TrEMBL record:
It comes from Aquibacillus salsiterrae. Coiled coil: none annotated. This is MBL fold metallo-hydrolase. InterPro entries: Metallo-B-lactamas, NDM-1-like, RibonucZ/Hydroxyglut_hydro. Residues 34-243 form the Metallo-beta-lactamase domain. Gene3D superfamilies: Ribonuclease Z/Hydroxyacylglutathione hydrolase-like.
Length: 274
């Protein structure tokens, strides 16, 4: 790990909560400097899964957070919302540590096995997440080929009976969200955020508002617009995003509808507007 990277971690860790936080009795999350990691399953249950893995070099902290909640019960699998480095960075280390499979949508597999590369980040989009990412951006692409397999194509998520995944392309080609219909819990990855993606690091304060996907990594804006509409149509009760704090309650729907119907104004970068 290089010095600048290490220093950045140490600075940030002073402000970081090292404990997992419970959202529901079988849903918890661990907030890292760059992205959220979710733990799905009751602490007493033998089967539970981890969703997303933050940036690289984070496995020790994630394992510590997991042990606080689950003791020595390891997850049965890792599910990835998409293959961007801030969600898959520690996936290899964790899969190896626990000896468990990693699942991602079929359309993301090539990007996490060094067969394809995402479009480069849009350099005109500066701001908070981007400035963190420029420090954390890995020098080598991740290659999960030893552990990764495609999710079933029917929307089922291995090991999670109550959950389904829904395709939400745009931010990346095979981006998914995870949804549990019985109580309306939605894990959104980067299809929707509750943290303003272009804000500065110092605004990592609890502003709960619904935002579109981070502009600098979003590849297909038409698809991203459709995915926001799809998410709004689900009418989720809980919004658990890849970046930002969890949201609950009626303001979710107001804000999702607002975002869906004003997507071009609110979300499209200026140079993509007609
Ligand atoms: Zn992303
Ligand atoms: Zn992200």
């Amino acid at each position: 790990m290089d010095k600048e990277f290490d220093q950045h971690y140490n600075d940030e860790l002073h402000t970081e909560n090292a404990d997992p936080e419970e959202i529901l009795d079988d849903v918890a999350y661990y907030r890292t400097i760059a992205a959220n990691v979710y733990m799905l399953g009751h602490p007493d249950s033998d089967t539970w899964v981890l969703v997303d893995t933050a940036v690289g070099h984070y496995s020790t902290r994630i394992i510590a957070a997991v042990e606080k909640r689950f003791g020595d019960k390891k997850p049965s699998a890792i599910i990835l919302t998409h293959g961007h480095f801030d969600h898959v960075g520690s996936a290899n280390d964790l899969a190896k540590h626990w000896n468990i499979p990693i699942y991602i949508h079929e359309k993301e597999i090539d990007y996490v096995t060094e067969k394809a590369q995402y479009q480069p980040a849009d350099p005109t989009m500066g701001g908070g997440l981007m400035s963190i990412f420029s420090i954390l951006f890995p020098k080598k692409p991740v290659n999960l080929k030893e552990w990764v397999q495609p999710l079933p194509s029917n929307g089922e998520i291995p090991l999670l009976k109550d959950w389904r995944y829904i395709e939400t392309p745009g931010h990346s080609p095979g981006h998914i969200v995870l949804y549990r219909e019985k109580d309306g819990v939605l894990i959104t990855g980067d299809a929707i955020l509750t943290e303003k993606p272009q804000s500065t690091i110092s605004t990592f304060i609890p502003i709960k508002n619904v935002y579109g996907p981070p502009a600098y990594f979003t590849e297909d804006w038409d698809a991203a617009r459709n995915s926001v509409k799809k998410i709004a149509a689900l009418k989720p009760n809980y919004l658990l995003t890849g970046h930002g704090l969890p949201m609950e309650g009626p303001e979710i729907q107001e804000q999702l509808d607002h975002l869906a119907s004003n997507f071009d104004n609110l979300v499209l970068p200026d140079h993509k507007k007609n």
